[in-house]
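Here we describe the complex-level prediction in full. Unlike the single-chain runs in Section 2.1, the two entities below were treated as one system.
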Amino acid sequence: MSNFASRTAPRESALVRWSLTAGVLVFLGLFLVLPLAAVIAEALGAGLRVYWESITEPDALSALRLTFLVAAIAVPLNMVFGVCAAWAIAKFRFRGRGLLLTLIDLPLAVSPVVSGMVYVLLFGLHGWFGPWLRERDIEIIFALPGIVLATIFVTFPYVARELIPLMEAQGNEQEEAALVLGASGLQTFVRVTLPNIKWGLLYGVILCNARAMGEFGAVSVVSGHIRGKTNTLPLHVEILYNEYNTAAAFACASLLAMLGLVTLVAKQVVGRLARGAQDDGVGSELLAGGGAR
Amino acid sequence: MGLTLGVTVTYLSLIVLLPLAALSHRAWGAGWGAFVDAAQSPRIVSALGLSFGAALVAAAFNAVAGLAVAWVLVRYSFPGKRLVDALIDLPFAMPTAVSGIALTAIYAPNGWVGGLLEPLGIQIAYTRWGILIALIFIGLPFVVRTIQPALEEIEAEVEEAAASLGASRWATFRRVLLPALFPAILTGFGLAMARGIGEYGSVIFIAGNKPNETEIAPLLIMMRLEEFNYAGAAVIAVAMLVMSFGLLLAVNLGQWWWGRRMKGVRA
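The structure predicted for the assembly as a whole is:
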């Protein structure tokens, strides 16, 4: 963190410091704390019984199940992809590397609605493969595969983006040493690379999972909003809200808000562990250097 | 190398390239006429203008507010600072639909803040102000998280030198710190605005969605898709992509121009 507090660097007058801090805290309170408080207040506003009934009602439970199912498919796939992509991009130099990086960042620059829509253009009723799929009775759009595809699209950058800078910084020496000593490629990856990147990987997976479970726009396009069937939890919240069933909408929203808070806490914890591991890494490297000398 | 690169390229081809090909094919198939028609449709032009304009204003606001937040978090200490710092990522972590209905509840005429403003004749929810509020919420972390590390890197010596040469605190900020932070502020601004142009979940609940007034471009795409008008949807989507890439290009040009200018100053 910053070392300004301990330094004798020039500082603003107490009045400026105080009013700036107060202004920022009021702004953050209004924009960050208030929405969180509103979710809790609205969710519990109609009483605990209504809250409990809203989150245990069959449609809500099926939406919750679908949300978990989609994340359970999309997140591991994106984890494997993220590790492969980061490995190829960080450890090797090849033609088209820049293009690959751009493609990985693409979903972050595209509207979620467009992310969902591209799959409708492929697999929808009037899409490229629409008629072919219809003849064979295969459902992709307005069914689970479409929801999974749209979720994979919006969440695949997270793991790769977390790992690429990390793996680039670590270089190839350790892997090369392992290979020279006779380890196989897989052994090298599991024994050498994986321990080095585990915290970064976990960090990326946490971000990926939060987005996967909370995604709204992209999934909204491909889901078809069939109650109890293709509704994920965020879509269920929307339907309840549009039916003026506010208490139930906020009850389900509070589950998603909890997911957000757990994500924030997990991020902090993993971030701290990663920094600790980094310090250890520096220490062991110094030790190794001393031994070699 | 061969295996991982193969997996990466195959995955990207299936997940990204193939769908993008379908999008460009659909827009191409619609022909120039469709783009000309869209450019003459007041509803489409207004929706695209709103998505772009609101994202621009919200990102500009966030550039200033985000700088203040980053400054306070890096330079000052106060009780609960670590908690506040962690909370900055809330808009990233919270599903957008939840943020959307929460903001609507607060700013609706019977909400906590909306109720206070209503007697004054100010309405936020279901107007363009509501869209701005949602985009400020969603864009804030982008700006704070890009400025924070840049601010931490600035050496105290630079400011000490400015102060010993007689510069006031404000002059030091304006002439020394702000130029050093400019690239980070610009990057944060660009990220926040790119997100704002395409934002859907947090906006549609609070926007009111009146055609020509508070209807954003992603919603219009949604409606075209529901009518199975794929070509019409693809045309708006391509227009949005062009706006986003234009923005990225402008931000990169800005960085390049600033870098050259700074070199000139030093020489």
